[in-house]
Design a protein that fits this description.
- This protein is an alpha/beta fold.
- It has 21 helices and 20 strands.
- A hairpin with a 5-residue loop joins strand 5 (120-127) and strand 6 (133-141).
- Helix 11 (335-355) packs across helix 12.
- The chain is elongated and about 115 Å long.
Length: 603
């Protein structure tokens, strides 16, 4: 039996290369390279020059191929080559380096510095808390020189001062300048520290949102950014007072804050959150807050090391959002609700993949029949999604999610392409059917929508009578010039336009006469009780009469009973569609249904 050998240990060169890559990454994370001069660093450099009585001093950072000076005195250039630079050796060894005379050194006599006339060099390493050496605090002279023990200590102290300045400057990326509180980045770092100290310990993130995020834009517009800034400052002060000075509070931006607590029972957590909320309200109302606030608290228990900081904040915010939507002051994170939103996110994320293969998305076709002849006159193309892990997903679930995303256009294009292809198959088989395709308002705003559809039809040698476009009232009304032009192009080409779900949108006479359409499809909610309720019959009768008077044909959707079918015939509907006729069918099943269709009598 052959066994796989273990991977060989990393070579010294590999380890050194990995260490160097980590060091360079740490250096670049500090955002010091190629930045403007800073008085905080220049003050230390001037002090070094004066203390050593030397003309040249610099804060030298060791980049991949150069030494770059964050601060310098006595030199004009900002950088020198890293090769044979003494600061590069300080960086490599993380040790103090003193060269009394560069010309007497076999290593440095031919260096860039020696070539400029420099004879003396002393440098102390700049080391981060994580152990990465960034470069050197160095002093240089034009004459050979020795360094005393006290001067060595002084140089190390100056290097420590430089690192304190670097850490102070870097802290601005961890502290919110508006409130003075730690920010999201610091929250992440603190969580990592806690994980090292107390792995698997239970904690609770308590998320506080003072103002509904949906209201912020209106407040920003009406009252200006200064008002929201003042609210954040007042809220930070009051919330810190409410939770106590011993608890660290983080400002996440806007009017959103978070702090950590120890885990207790759910009821106790809710009581504590509501108590903090009441204390916060009392403090803010007693302060000079610029607006009234409605704080909501989100509670997310977790264990250190099991979830990332971003997921902790997401869970806590989800709990806050759910509580606000439920009209509660505080809420616990719900796995069930989160699974619901994760499912929504999965559907949005996966639709792109579904469009690229032939195994997930497919069309079914629901017949429409004429009430005069009882024969099938057309079908409505309906999209279906067989998700590889979720199974069959209802279009009522995924279409509303996708129609307001960038995927709406390619999804509609997929439906158009496949519906036109199927229409072409049936047309060239001799079936004179009209396939109805649902289109959203977003599609009408695409300047090339009509051209793309007509090109698809032309490519399949399909006449205009074979395709019908369905749009809701909201998609047809109040659209811009682009949408109107798209409809005009389609109508001019001979396509029929149907108003889908009629009666559930605007349903206003002042709009109806302006809609460029040919067919009205009465929504199923008016048809369900049609054979049983005379009030519904009166309403449907009014719709049919009005639509006919305005020149529309009428299709009734959702017909499930013989009673509804016969009542619609009496009221003068032109066509009907629904489970009484047939459920949405796959193409081959529809073809068999069409061959064996038995028309329903009107009486």
């Amino acid at each position: 039996m052959l066994l796989k050998s273990q991977a060989p240990p990393l070579s010294t060169a590999s380890l050194m290369n990995t260490h160097e890559q980590d060091r360079l990454f740490a250096l670049r994370q500090l955002n010091l390279l190629d930045t403007s001069p800073s008085e905080g660093f220049d003050r230390i450099t001037r002090m070094a020059s004066q203390l050593f009585g030397l003309p040249i001093a610099a804060v030298s950072l060791t980049d991949e191929n150069r030494q770059w000076f964050k601060s310098r005195i006595g030199v004009d250039h900002w950088e020198i080559p890293r090769d044979t630079a003494p600061c590069a050796d300080v960086c490599s060894t993380s040790q103090l380096l003193i060269i009394p005379d560069l010309l007497s050194s076999a290593t440095y006599r031919n260096s860039f510095l020696a070539g400029t006339g420099i004879r003396f060099y002393a440098g102390a390493p700049l080391v981060t808390r994580e152990g990465h050496t960034l470069g050197a605090m160095c002093v240089l002279g034009m004459q050979p020189r020795e360094v005393s023990e006290q001067e060595q200590t002084t140089l190390r102290d100056l290097a420590a001062m430089v690192m304190s300045q670097i850490e102070l400057q870097h802290a601005f990326g961890r502290v919110d300048p508006l409130t003075g509180l730690s920010n999201r980045n610091q929250f992440s770092e603190d969580l990592q520290d806690m994980e090292r100290d107390e792995p698997n310990a239970g904690r609770v993130a308590l998320y506080t949102e003072l103002v509904d995020a949906n209201e912020l834009s209106a407040l920003h517009r009406n009252m200006g950014p200064a008002c929201l800034d003042e609210l954040a400052r007042v809220a930070a002060r009051c919330l810190q007072q409410a939770i106590g000075s011993a608890i660290k509070l983080y400002h996440l931006g806007g009017c959103q804050f978070v702090h950590l607590m120890s885990q207790t029972g759910d009821e106790h957590l809710l009581d504590e959150a509501l108590g903090i909320r009441q204390a916060l309200l009392a403090l803010i109302n007693a302060s000079d807050a610029p607006i009234l606030v409605h704080p909501t608290m989100g509670i997310a228990p977790f264990h250190l090391g099991e979830v990332k900081a971003a997921d902790v904040l997401r869970s806590a915010y989800a709990a806050c959002l759910d509580a606000r939507q439920a009209g509660k002051g505080a809420g616990l994170f719900s796995l069930d609700l989160d699974a619901h939103y994760q499912r929504r996110f999965m559907l949005i994320s996966d639709i792109g993949r579904a469009l690229e293969n032939d195994s997930e998305l497919y069309l079914v076709f629901q017949p429409r029949v004429s009430l005069d002849s009882g024969k099938c006159t057309g079908v409505e193309a309906l999209l279906r999604w067989r998700h590889p892990t979720l199974g069959e997903v209802s279009p009522g679930e995924f279409i509303p999610l996708i129609e307001n995303t960038p995927m709406a256009k390619p999804l509609t294009q997929w439906v158009l392409r496949h519906a036109v292809r199927q229409a072409s198959v049936w047309y060239h088989q001799g079936e004179r059917l009209r396939i109805s395709i649902n289109v959203s308002a977003t599609n009408l705003e695409e300047e090339d929508f009509a051209v793309r559809l007509l090109d698809e039809m032309a490519g399949m040698a399909l006449p205009s009578t074979a395709i019908e476009i369905e749009l809701t009232e909201s998609a047809l009304i109040g659209q811009g010039e682009v949408a109107v032009n798209q409809l005009k192009v389609l109508i001019a080409a001979g396509l029929q336009i149907a108003i889908d779900d009629f009666g559930t949108g605007y349903s206003s006479l002042s709009y109806l006469h302006e809609i460029p359409a040919h067919i009205v499809k009465i929504d199923r909610c008016f048809i369900t009780d049609l054979g049983q309720d005379e009030r519904t019959a009166t309403l449907v009768n009014s719709m049919i009469t009005m639509a006919h008077a305005l020149g529309y044909r009428v299709v009734a959707e959702g017909v499930k009973t013989n009673a509804a079918y016969h009542r619609l015939a009496q009221l003068g509907s032109d066509e009907v569609q629904g489970y009484l006729i047939a459920k949405p069918l796959l193409p081959n099943v529809f073809e068999k249904w069409l061959q064996n269709q038995t028309p329903i009598t009107k009486h």
